[in-house]
Amino acid sequence: MQIKWEPPILDGGCKVYEYEIYYSKVNVERVGKREIKKIEEMPPLTTSRYFKRNPVATYGFTLTNLSGDTLYTNIRMRCRNKIDWGTFCAPIEVQTTPCVPPSPPLFFKNIKLSSSVIAFDWGEPFNTGGSPTVNYLMTYTEVRLKDEQGVGVKSDAEKYEEVDHEVDMESAECYHSMIDLRGETEFKNFSLKGE
Fold first, then answer.
1. Of 79, 102, 169, 173, which shows the fewest CB atoms inside 10 Å?
2. What are the Cα distances from residue 153, in Å, to 48, 143, 145, 156, 157?
3. Of the given ranges (15-19, 58-62, 177-181), which has the lowest mean pLDDT?
């Protein structure tokens, strides 16, 4: 959510060096046909970033890692000079857009490999798309012999077949192992996505 503002007209005679944003999240719980709204006060957020060339967010700031399709209320801000904090501005409300698919999981890697086991682990996606990741879906291709003997077959295209697989993890756990695999089977094109 991008919040924009103009610097205060009256700065108290000293330069403003910090802005602080307060906001609340409205959590909606459905019980039967009723909706119960609970307001959760979020921790205040200072906007100055001293690693930037212009560290003071004089004209606006972007709030990140918010939940999708959620009402944020009582959004207000104040600024500070070397004397003290000023008063809060008038509060506003904002409804975030619906959730989008998460970014790819981070650091997807093989951690164990043997003739009968392949194990993987990965990190949570950097961007969850506005809601927690509750499931992962892995796809891969298995290259295997068309028949066990391969008798009378001349080329690899006649000898092997490619079979695509899709594994629904049904979990938010960042680990998966494939066990009881046949030896001398090739697995390729592994991909992973969060849902």
1. 173
2. 70, 16, 11, 8, 9
3. 177-181
CB 54 within 8 A of CB 93: no
From residue 92, give the alpha-carbon distance in Å to each of 3, 60, 73, 75, 177.
10, 15, 6, 5, 48
* Rounded average pLDDT over 71-80: 93
- pTM of the shown model: 0.64
Give pLDDT tens digits for 153-171: 566 667 778 888 888 888 8
Q: Which amino acid is at 6?
A: E
In 3-state terms the chain splits into helix, strand, coil percentages (rounded to 5) of 0, 45, 50
pLDDT at site 151:
61
In order of their start, the domains of the chain are 2-95 (2.60.40.10), 106-194 (2.60.40.10)
Cα–Cα distance between 79 and 46 in angstroms, integer? 9
Ramachandran bin of 118, using left for φ above 0, alpha for ψ from -120 to 50, beta for the remaining angles: beta
